[in-house]
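Key result, reporting period 2: structure in, sequence out.
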């Protein structure tokens, strides 16, 4: 499976690396300061794709400034991103695939 070394988010080049994150108890991490996404090297298939998509969303919220807003979102974007991961994309992806046929 192809796996990118970089992605561009909002015109910013983001480095993507794989590292064992089992001690961090997570599938992926986003670092705004270093502009790096780290994905657990133990992941494969849909888990790998889902983790990368999740961290690209984290980067998108961070780079857009939404992650830094006051109000309900100021407590963190994790809940919003998990909503997209678990509710929106499971509806959108199959619908999008069917519409492309």
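The corresponding designed sequence is given below.
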């Amino acid at each position: 499976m192809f796996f990118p070394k970089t992605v561009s988010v909002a015109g910013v080049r983001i480095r993507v690396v794989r590292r064992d994150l089992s001690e961090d108890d997570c599938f992926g991490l986003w670092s705004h300061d270093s502009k790096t996404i780290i994905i657990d090297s133990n992941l494969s298939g849909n888990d790998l794709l889902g983790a990368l998509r999740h961290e690209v969303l984290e980067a998108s919220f961070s780079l857009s400034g939404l992650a830094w807003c006051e109000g309900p979102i100021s407590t963190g974007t994790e809940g919003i991103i998990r909503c997209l991961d678990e509710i929106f994309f499971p509806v959108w992806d199959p619908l999008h695939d069917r519409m492309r046929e």
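The helical segments are 45-64, 78-100. The chain has a mean pLDDT of 89. This case is discussed further under Risks and Mitigation.
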